[in-house]
Amino acid sequence: TKSDAAVACFRQGFSCSQAVFSAFAEDLGLDRETALRLSQPFGGGIARLASFAGSLFLATTLLFPRVWAQ
Asked: Which residue intervals of 1-70 are DSSP H helices?
């Protein structure tokens, strides 16, 4: 499952945003390496403040771009 893939990636030392986004890479037409690189800046939350989850921000901006386009 995607959740198993995300957990496995996180356990390999990737950030939460990388783990979650890479699990959806194929659905987005990306290879895993590209997904890991695109999501790397979001690790640790916005500005590494850990006050807003980087994976949540990544999901809303990259997985659901129509929300931001309106």
From this structure: 2-11, 16-23, 32-39, 54-58, 65-69
Tokens representing residue 18 in the block: 């990388």
Split at pLDDT 50, 70, 90, the class of 11 is: very high
Which amino acid type is present at position 10? F
Q: What are phi and psi of 66, to 5 degrees?
A: -65, -30
pTM of the model: 0.71
Is residue 24 helix, strand or coil?
coil
> What is the Rg, in whole angstroms, of the alpha carbon atoms belonging to the chain?
12
Q: Tokens standing for 70?
A: 């309106």
